[in-house]
Design a protein that fits this description.
By secondary structure, the chain is of the alpha/beta class. The protein has 9 helices and 7 strands. The chain has a 7-stranded mixed β-sheet with strand order 3-2-1-4-5-7-6, with helices on both faces. Helix 7 runs antiparallel to helix 8. The longest helix is centred in the last third of the chain and has 21 residues. It is globular, with a radius of gyration of 18 Å. The termini are far apart.
């Protein structure tokens, strides 16, 4: 029995199909993203019907209303192929942006994507885990992540790491799929994610990732629980804004602008 727990779960088409309850969950998630790396952006756009392109920019506009300080250095964790890192770089033309991902194949793909005009020297990528960010304390004014949080085995630990690398008054932005509050729209939402997305995945050899997507949402904390985790991680000021009838939420959290030892 012990040996079987090390065998990754696969879908019928042989694609990786992570299971949160297994001790190999983090390893299996990495394998899933390596499997998806070359077609990751197309997979996301198809699953979200292209709305993810708008959600990222909406989250950045909400960030502008929330933040109170400048953004000179930004970190995007779980950057994947760099889609959100590129959006952050374009949104803050005066900032240096670093994208980190724990899947090397994703980082290779990110390097191959073109940076926004004039931003090539200010956008970099590397490997790193959200649960142990390889950066010094108080290194960034902004830490972002998009559609990453529900894939983490320990979300509070990731929030603590974000808090650690943020400067006083820095902001964390977490963009994630969420449960729609309307019962009617919730049924429409789950019909798409629980039935349509897996059907599309099977058609292109991605049954495992497309079945994992709705499963990852079912275990994700509620909006109020996420905000509570952020406050418990050392963010005294928090907020949330939902889009598209509540199927996506931007969680915003600001560190204390005054370091405790300076009081």
């Amino acid at each position: 029995m012990a040996a079987s727990s090390t065998v990754p779960r696969l879908a019928a088409d042989g694609s990786p199909y992570p299971e949160r309850g297994l001790p190999t969950f983090e390893r299996d998630v990495r394998r899933m993203f390596a499997h998806l790396s070359r077609r990751y952006e197309r997979f996301n756009h198809a699953a979200a019907l292209g709305n993810d392109l708008l959600w990222r920019h909406c989250a950045l506009w909400e960030l502008d209303r929330f933040r109170r300080g400048p953004v000179r250095r930004a970190l995007d964790i779980g950057c994947g192929t760099g889609e959100f890192a590129r959006a952050v770089s374009g949104h803050f033309p005066g900032a240096d942006v670093l994208g980190l991902d724990f899947t090397r194949a994703m980082v290779v793909e990110a390097h191959d994507r073109r940076a926004p005009r004039g931003r090539a020297g200010h956008l970099a990528y590397g490997t790193g885990n959200a649960l142990s960010i390889p950066c010094a304390d108080r290194s960034f004014d902004l830490v972002t992540n998009a559609f990453v949080a529900r894939n983490l085995r320990d979300l509070p630990a990731a929030f603590h790491e974000m808090r650690r690398v943020l400067r006083p008054g820095g902001v964390a932005l977490t963009l994630e799929i969420s449960e729609p509050p309307s019962p009617t729209f919730r049924r429409v939402f789950h019909t798409h994610f629980d039935k349509v997305v897996p059907m599309l995945g099977r058609a292109v050899g991605n049954e495992g990732p497309s079945r994992y997507l709705p499963e990852s949402l079912r275990g994700f904390p509620s909006r109020s629980e996420v905000l509570g985790m952020l406050r418990a991680s050392g963010f005294p000021r928090t907020g949330a804004r939902s889009y598209s009838f509540g199927i996506v939420t931007a969680f915003l959290a600001e560190t204390d602008p005054v370091p405790p030892q300076s009081r």
